[in-house]
Amino acid sequence: MSKRNGPRYALLGLFLIALLVALTFTVQRNPDAAPAAADAPKTDDAQLQSLAELDGKAPARRKLDIQSWQTAEGAKVLFVEARELPMFDVRLTYAAGSSQDGDIQGLAMLTNAMLNEGVPGKDVGAIAAGFESLGAQFENGAYRDMAVTSLRSLSAAEQREPALKLFEQVIGQPTFPADSLVRIKNQVLAGFEFQKQNPGKLASLELFERLYGTHPYGHPSEGNAQSIPGISREQLQAFHAKAYAAGNAVIAVVGDLSREEAEAMAAEVSAALPKGPALPKTIEPDAPKAGLTHIDFPSNQTHLLIAQLGIDRRDPDYAALYLGNQVFGGGGFGTRLMTEVREKRGLTYGVYSGFTAMQARGPFLINLQTRAELSDGTLQLVKDLLGEFIANGPTQEELDAAKREMAGSFPLSTASNSAIVGQLGAIGFYDLPLTYLEDFMAQVQAQSVEQVKTAMAKHLDPEALVIVTAGPKVAQKELPPPTDKPAEQPTGVPEH
What we know:
Elements: E1 2-6, H1 12-29, E2 67-70, E3 76-81, E4 87-94, H2 107-113, E5 118-119, E6 122-123, H3 124-133, E7 137-142, E8 147-154, H4 157-172, H5 178-195, H6 199-212, H7 233-243, E9 249-255, H8 259-272, E10 291-296, E11 301-309, H9 318-330, H10 336-343, E12 351-355, E13 363-371, H11 375-392, H12 396-409, H13 417-429, H14 436-446, H15 449-459, E14 466-471
Parallel strand pairs: 3-9, 10-14
Antiparallel strand pairs: 1-7, 2-3, 4-8, 4-9, 5-6, 7-8, 11-13, 11-14, 12-13
Helix pairs in contact: 2-7, 4-8, 9-12, 9-14, 9-15, 10-11, 11-15
């Protein structure tokens, strides 16, 4: 996986303006808010409203009016008008992740990393200076399913128009300069050397190879030390021409724009891209062979990765599985895993589980580190906890608590323009309905214990686990018994 920011910091003035407008908007939208301290009358009316008055109600969240259309070149567009700040975000999501690498591992990552290294008449320094002088921010990244490019800028025409022109050059006319290609290859190769000292990364690479084999998800997004040196500028150009084509892109726009302005912006961005259709969707993987692989590594702790194939992003059981996982290991403190593995036994600093739902079936993964001499017992404990949860599901109390937590935290998913544009990109890329955000929370709140139990048992099998461990081979000890006060607390932060 790679993510590159250029430039990393926009002009300070952009944020000062945004902050001032945000503060002004907050006062205008909250006429009952207390005045400034110097002017506040010394009465009870000036006191802050008690949180107790919320009476358990979930915080309000933004109602999104998502509008959608298609450009003349075939790009899907999703737009939300947001006038609170004089800014806009545009994010393009392409089916141009490493699953499209074919036989050239790392091609998608390298193409994306090179986008802002040069355009006609400008090198990487001039591009960065151009965005910075406008108070604009460009970001890009490449992953297994997708590649992304995004722009954030002030919405006033004098900033918006030149920032958009530069953005269009970067995504539509990259020159892939030879000197930059050498530099970035060397950076990537240096990263591969560093990976050799990271047992968690080694375990992750082995896990995906075990889970997916020769499937497009099986190889690392960044390629490998054998594939990267031979990638040519001509191969980058060819990949860009097909994978960054307008028909293979979703354009998400959020901000201080009218529908007419958003349509003009999307049309301009779409026209700047190469012409071409959407690429074929990633094929579904075959079921992997269950079992354990150990990587011997001289560390104090052992990394444990426990996984199996999960679901794709459009699976109808997504809401039930997401909710069930929040109870089991996805919700931080209070989950089954954290309670039994960390809080009662002090075996780890943190233990987490999750479904990564992708274009094809992504992994369900449990991830933790523990003391090397307790790794066998910890692994068995986690497997037992998973088997018990699959067999019996959550309790009603656990499910109700998870629903309350999700109702309280879900507004954060649309709390900012950048969060909204990310949601729109996912909705468009995975062909989800425009009402997805509303539908998802309604589905979560409607789930029963039996529905969650049924979904977990349908998609997870404790006998089909692919397990990778990385750490030293040492004599094993028995696990301490569960207690409210573990004799030995977890050691600080994880090693890696």
